[in-house]
Design a protein that fits this description.
It is a single chain. It is globular and about 45 Å long. The longest helix has 21 residues, at 139-159. It is 29% helix and 18% strand. It starts with a strand and ends with a helix. The chain has a single domain (4-159), classed as Alpha-Beta Plaits, CATH 3.30.70.20. The protein has helices at 18-28, 61-65, 92-96, 122-126, 139-159, and strands spanning 4-8, 39-43, 48-52, 71-73, 80-82, 103-104, 111-112, 132-136. It has a two-stranded antiparallel sheet with strand order 1-8. The chain has a two-stranded antiparallel ribbon with strand order 2-3. A hairpin with a 4-residue loop joins strand 2 (39-43) and strand 3. The protein is an alpha+beta fold.
Length: 163
């Protein structure tokens, strides 16, 4: 089985938050975007929306920072997951993520991290604009990921009026 990854194109995101809501519904059985494993950073005044999700780093800071080794890579899917039985809630993984893509449940303080829905990501299925795709890891996918990531600072600078 070839490993796959999520590719996010912020220029296609319309800020509907379907990805957040359906993610929370799948994993937590509640329609509450704060409980999702993907979050949309928004500059609504400028209609700029950036979905943020685990980047499944090659050398993940979240995994390295965990004192209980609760964060680990699922080698079947490539996802970085959290073993809730081992997690002590220190939030080291949250603070170490350079992308801000490890989240905390606001009600119980548990770490929420994308597990790629065990290889069948719900966010991809519900995104009406195909801003989120699930693609085989390849040089082409990597270049698309980098190109899309490079666009985000330009969008943000535009939103805050620096360009």
């Amino acid at each position: 089985m070839a490993l796959k990854t999520l590719i996010i194109d912020a220029q296609k995101c319309i800020g509907c938050r379907s990805c957040e809501n359906y993610c929370a519904l799948k994993h937590e059985h509640v329609c509450n975007p704060a409980k999702g494993r993907i979050h949309v950073v928004k500059w609504e005044q400028d209609a700029i929306f950036v979905p943020v999700n685990c980047m499944r780093c090659e050398e993940p800071a979240c995994e390295l920072a965990c004192p209980k080794h609760a964060t680990y890579r699922n080698y079947q899917t490539g996802a970085l997951e959290v073993d809730r039985d081992r997690c002590i809630g220190c939030l080291s993984c949250v603070f170490e993520c350079p992308f801000g893509a490890t989240f905390v449940d606001p009600q119980d303080g548990r770490v929420l991290k994308c597990n790629l829905c065990d290889g069948d990501p719900t966010c991809v299925k519900v995104c009406p604009t195909n801003a989120i795709t699930y693609e085989d890891i390849s040089q082409e996918a990597y270049l698309k990921l980098v190109k899309n990531a490079d666009r985000i600072p330009v969008l943000v600078r535009k939103a805050i009026g620096e360009e």
